[in-house]
Structures are given as C-alpha cells and as structure tokens.
Amino acid sequence: MTLEEFSAGEQKTERMDKVGDALEEVLSKALSQRTITVGVYEAAKLLNVDPDNVVLCLLAADEDDDRDVALQIHFTLIQAFCCENDINILRVSNPGRLAELLLLETDASPASSEGAEQPPDLHCVLVTNPHSSQW
C-alpha cells in the first residue's frame, strides 16, 4: 500500500463517518417530528399516495438479505420509483445500527408492543417532509 492509497482510504473513511453522523441527526429529528415510515410495504403505500413529501429513502440490507430475491425485487422497484421522483436514496449496510437508531424512540410506542415477537421491517425507511415550513 502506498502513501497515496493510505491517504485516500483515510479520506473515504472520514467522509463516510460524516455521512453517518448526518444520517443519525436526520433520523433523530425525523423521529421527534414523527416523519418516518418503516417497512417495505408501508413505504410502497406512501410512495404511491404522496411521493412529493418523501425526502429520503433508506434501503437497509446485510449479507443475508442479498440472497432474498423478493426483497431485491422490492428494492429495485423502490429505487426506480425514487429515481423517477427525485427522492434521495441511501443504501445502508448495517441494518443493526439503523435498528438501534430507530428503536430507541419506538420501543415506548404502543405499536411496538403489539408485535413484540416479530421485529419491525427495517429494510426500507422513508423520511418525509413535515407539513410545516421548517424544511
């Protein structure tokens, strides 16, 4: 490894850390404003009804999910729809960390206690624009 390759690798890591920090901040604010939709099917419904208010689409998959053909088809369709409607897309390779960020706030909600045995579908998360002039 040359010095240039090492330096480029460090810069890439720093940029990814900054993106991760910004994503954590966006998710935290969206949770407090209740502008998050979680789940592939829920996301598809919202995208069908109100795509103009969606500002960010997170698609989370780990190595095991890469072998799930149905999930990959859903991802492809959601990505195509988001591209066509100018919705920003981020691929997340650590769904566990995404779950930590989202479930800190949602553990206290009544919806999470109903299906306590089955974890929520965090493969697709949408952040919508609040109906105020803040965004």
Structure, described:
It is a single chain. The chain is α+β, with helices and mostly antiparallel strands and 135 residues long. The protein is built from five helices and four strands. Strands 1-4-2-3 form a four-stranded mixed sheet. Strand 2, helix 3 and strand 3 form a beta-alpha-beta unit. The chain has a domain of 92 residues: Ribosomal protein L30/S12 (60s Ribosomal Protein L30, Chain: A, 2-Layer Sandwich), CATH 3.30.1330.30. About 7% of the residues have low confidence. 55% of the residues lie in helices and 15% in strands. Helix 1 runs parallel beside helix 4.
Oligomeric state, counting identical vs distinct chains:
single chain
- Beta-strand proportion: 5-15%
Unreliable stretches covering 5 or more consecutive residues: 104-113
The strand line-up of the biggest sheet is 1-4-2-3
* Second-tier CATH architecture of the domain at 21-104 and 121-128: 2-Layer Sandwich
Instruction: Count the beta strands.
Output: 4
